[in-house]
Amino acid sequence: MYLHNYSLVSEFVLHGLCTSQHLQNFFFIFFSGIYVAIMLGNLFIVVTVVSDPHLQSSPMYFLLGNLSFLDMWLASFATPKMIRDFLSDRKVISFGGCMAQIFFLHFSGGAEMLLLVSMAYDRYVAICKPLHYMTIMNRLTCIRLVLVSWIIGFVHSISQVAFTVNLPYCGPNEVDSFFCDLPLVIKLACMDTYILGILMISDSGLLSVSCFLLLMISYTVILRTVQQHAAGGITKALSTCSAHIMVVTLFFGPCIFIYVWPFSRFSVDKLLSVFYTIFTPLLNPLIYTLRNEEMKAALKKLCN
Known about the structure:
Low-confidence stretches: 1-5
Strand content: under 5%
Order of helices and strands: EHHHHEHHHEHHHHH
CATH architecture: Up-down Bundle
Radius of gyration: 21 Å
CATH superfamily: Rhodopsin 7-helix transmembrane proteins
CATH class: Mainly Alpha
Shape: globular
């Protein structure tokens, strides 16, 4: 807190996605529609899982409902502000609002990474150990997996914000993005933050890479198991896993790329940020529900 007393910056200026007024008008309509679709789609999934006793008692759908809930958080930490900024000439965010964006990004993002690993583990048990599935993936285990993902996400996020908020910000306040991204905000501090930045960003990089490797290993084991025990089921399993792997790649790929070269910004970084903060929460309902017969039947029942 000693350093924070010397911070003179009360707000940050965001550069946004682009400077063209025509593009900003188009993006306002485009991302407004995307955001509404994300919120309605994921909310519909949560309501469907909660209202259907069969889905509620299933470990897979219990985890899916929690994933949709986190997707709504992930899509909401910066997207509404970005949409509003498309109509503003000067895009500013308060110091507290900037820190809040960093917190909710790493909280919801970190928790979602762990939850995706939990969902992959659920599929591994269901396919590789089907006779013990309900014993291993009982309700208590599912609740523990969700709680662990939330707790790790919270600890990861609070550790990032605790260091960032206490840095001295006394000069530059322009962030070259549409939200307060951790590597960009750290660079604005009036001190040498290279070592501190490496430590903080390594935390995010380690979490992203570890979860991604666990997911890839689990899907590889699933495909090998299906190939060995069900010759006709490899095509269906490959189709399902490939869709899941696509979502995982779109979510983890940009995160890993941004945090591997955190202090060297590229022109594609903004586009990558859009993928894991906006498009992934939109793809999850499509991949995990519309390709699932049980979920589609429950959605029809809810609509009726």
